[in-house]
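Figure 2 data, in text form.
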Amino acid sequence: MTSGIDAALATQAAGLTIGALLRGRVRLHPDRLAIVDGARQFTYGAFNARVNRLAAVLGTLDIGRGDRVAILSENRAEYLELIFAAGKLGAIVCALNWRLADPELRHCVGLTTPKAVFVSPDYLATARRLGFTGIVALGDEYEQRLSAASDIEPEIIAEPEDGHIIIYTSGTTGNPKGALISHRAQIARMTASCVDFDLAPGDVFVAWPPMFHMASADQSIHALCLGGKVIVVPGYDLDRILHAVETERLWWLAVLPGMVEDMIAGIKQRGCEPKGIKLIGAMADLVPRHQLAEITTLLRAPFANTFGATETGMPPASAGRVPIGAAPTRLPKIPSAIGRFRLVDADDRDVPDGTPGELAFRGPTLFSGYWNAPETNAQDFRGGWFHMGDVFVRNPDGTLDFVDRVKYLIKSGGENIYPAEIEQVLLSDPRVADAVVVRRADARWGEVPVAFVARRDEALSEADLIEACRANLARYKRPKQFFFVGVDELPRSTTGKIQRHEVEKWLAS
């Protein structure tokens, strides 16, 4: 049976975009504070007027639906203005990672071919050195262009499946890939933030992680679309972050691996008294357990036990919490409400509970694929499921235990070893500040695991680590060698993850 409704008309009538959501909030709360960027503050009315002027400027640059516009900048209000102006026009923002090397930045711009590149003063020399065209300098030039443009509300021509933002993701090898996130995906991610992360209209978010990463971009968009306030901080400025903690009731405070110890020290030194935080943290697996207990106690908020990705948003398994003061030995993941998943073997067959399998995801938060990468997309989206490249085990109660990345597998004497499983054992010792396990070539076994450990307590010995591994791991999984390093020596990504492939290079030096 059919309803008699034209499917195309029904789809059109059901459409919603980021720009339309902002417009609705402006009508309801024009005088409510939307953006705080240092000494600059913008109400929803003022912010939307600047967004409209920027949309007009983009029009003069011949940027419209489907065109790309890049930004190379630290966090600042203009970043969010561009995200929403492009969103109204159906243009796509390419969020360039300023930490990349010159060849990688050239690749990112060459891949997505933006018609213009908005650049902050800190990176103008880089953009000019790399020969970027269509540069618009943030600051005086940007303000002059805005002042000469109309603030009349443009017609919103974007459609839900139009691309909205490209976030560049990198694996252990090769050039960055451009993950295209649509309006549909962004609005679904906002729904997931409400359902699994307690986001409510009017909540406050501190945008200190780089906006070229979903940890700031997604959450800032969600807060603004629900009438909240975004406090923009250009990087990890602990004084400004803790000032917000003391003076604002916050939604979700990003506390990333690698900076937890420093934040703990800063809170204690300052005598910081939180006004109220709903949730802190991400990627609890990568945080030493004693730090989980201490940071949640100091900030009086649970720690998010997340597993998400740029490609999927916070789903598929980020609904769990580490309670205040807890130092759990296990961190099982609770599946998110928005989405479906399977655990599959190399032939895409479902694996039973207790058996490691790659997580394949399906749901409205999913991105639209990698820009100009048809072969990668065909492989990763095979069978109508996005294959994440991450291995999990499903427990009888439906929770998931993270095992490791598919692509970083240690094959030792015919056995599969996942480094993260070993790292969990090492990180459970409160004397360990951090740890990473990598593979080393071995004449007998092919590959064996070795561990690099940063000590919190210098009394911790190799014998202590060997005993912990003997008690918790099968013989073939135990590291064959331990190296003690300083915690600051461990190379990290922009999200605080230790980069195993960089550590592995140490073995060859």
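Caption note: The radius of gyration is 23 Å.
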